[in-house]
Amino acid sequence: MDRFQAMQVFTxxxxxxxxxxxxxxxxxxxxxVTTTIQNLERMLxxxxxxxxxxxxxxxxDGAAYYERCVRILADLEDAEAxxxxxxxxxxxxxxxxxxxxxxxxxxxxxxxxFHNRYPDxxxxxxxxxxxxxxxxxxxxxxxxxxxxxxxxMVARRIGTFEFxxxxxxDYLDRxxxxxxxxxxxxxxxxxxxxxxxxxxxxWSYMVDGKPVDIPLQSVxxxxxxxxYVTCGVKGFGLIQVARYMVAxxxxxxxxxxxxxxxRAPSMPISVVYLHNRHLSPKVRVFxxxxxxxxxxxxxxxxxxxxxCFDTECKFAGETGTADTIRGMLRHREVEDAVL
Length: 339
What we know:
Elements lengths: L2 H14 L2 H8 L3 H15 L4 E3 L4 E3 L1 H23 L9 E6 L2 H18 L3 E6 L14 E5 L7 E9 L1 E5 L1 H7 L13 E4 L10 E5 L2 E5 L3 E5 L2 H9 L5 E4 H10 L3 E3 L8 E8 L6 H15 L2 H4 L32 H4 L2
């Protein structure tokens, strides 16, 4: 039995959650896939998969073996890629995961540029609202917001999340502008709650050089980032949001900035990958490209630290109303979606 082929068959079955689908994906007869898994289990003397008429699932031994197979196959692919003729350029499937807002507003509008530069790389872009296990799910790199705590990862900082407090003109005409952070207590705000815990996420500001969380009461709270921004545009109250996501709304006047002299803590944006991916040509060129992409826009590179903003960040792709600003990510939604 070819052990590497058996590993490939096993990982394809797990990822497809189907013997038949895995066989179709690999261009093999279903009987060959079934026999390969049976022989693999016989050789290892453990059961890797639980099988029923409707579904398959990993056993604990199967989950551990799958994780190791993913690592071994990825290392093999990286080793082969390192010794290919350099004139061919990087190639292969590149699996990426990003927060929905970054994926929709930044990556997707610019993917044609990446493809034109590296036509032999097949991109698989995930934009889910859940943490991703890079090893278990064979993800090559992820874009994350906030400080990295996992020492098994390598993080390259590519940008900065800067936040703005704003509201609709109609709301400010009715309630006035807050003059200080203390004034927020008498204002109406829109709150965001965690979809995992249900907990309201406090607002945060820098006070005397230190970040201070400020709990605020609201008449409406949501757990969807687009709905959060829409509530602000419709005049429900003040919102605190990443500046680059609402720059067109600030420019058009649909939203107005308040408390411009008081800043919320900024957060780093990083591209993160496993230690054993650092030599992969496809990962290296993507990391370089995404870093270059973020540096084109002062709102994301950290170059803008004043109320002004640059709407020439062409890759953001959106230019006008709340209906066209998709996937807005509220301050510290990273707790739910991207950490």
